[in-house]
Every structure is written in structure tokens, then in C-alpha cells.
Write a structure and sequence with these properties.
mainly alpha; 5 helices; elongated; Four Helix Bundle (Hemerythrin (Met), subunit A); single chain; 131 residues; 82% helix
Length: 131
Amino acid sequence: MKTLKSLLFLFVLLAAGNAQSQSVFEKWPSIKAFHEVLSATFHPAEKGDLKPIKARYEELALKAEDVLKSTIPAEYQTKEILASAERLQIKTKALQKKMATNADDATIMKQLNEIHDTFHEIVGLCSGEKH
């Protein structure tokens, strides 16, 4: 019986943690849409393939703009999250400008890393984690 209670407790704990981590994307669809493009471009870039980001940098900037234009869930409307969302948009616009001037791969990767870090900062702030 004790083992059953322990397993049930563990299941509830894992389910609660999983629900919390997913809730940001469920509650804020535009941050989820941004993540989909970021994921499809950042992970290949980590492996040296910059073709996806070179093809989708404008889409990434538009998705960052949508993050700010969207209805941000009330619990995420803090100064810190809004400032980070503004930085996200600024950083994606900066990448857009650098791409227009044929930036080298190192510059693109540096900018993409900053965008990626800013995105994780937002998600961390939404879930109550400090970054």
C-alpha cells in the first residue's frame, strides 16, 4: 500500500510539473508559434546548418512581433516579461537587418543565440524561474 501511495504521489507530482511547463504555450499561442519557428531554425544552426534561419529569418521576426501584438495572458503581463518580449522583437529585427547586409555565419549565429536566450528568459519568467 505504501508503494502504491508513493507511486500515486510521484505520478501527481510529474503531472503537475508537466502541466506547468506546457501551460505557457497553451495560454500564450503566439509564444508557441514563435517557438516553432525558432526551434526549426536554431537547432539546425547549432549543428552548423544555417539554411533554415537564412530562409526563415523574416518569419521569425514577424512571429516575435506577434508575441508583442498578441493578447498576453494576464499572469504574464509583468514588467520583466514585457521588457523581455520587447528585447525579443528588437533582436529579431536586428537579425533581419544583418541578414539584409549579408552577415557572415558567425554574426548570424551570435544573433540567433541571443534570440534563443531571450526566448528562454521569457518562458522562464512565465514559469516563475529566474534566468
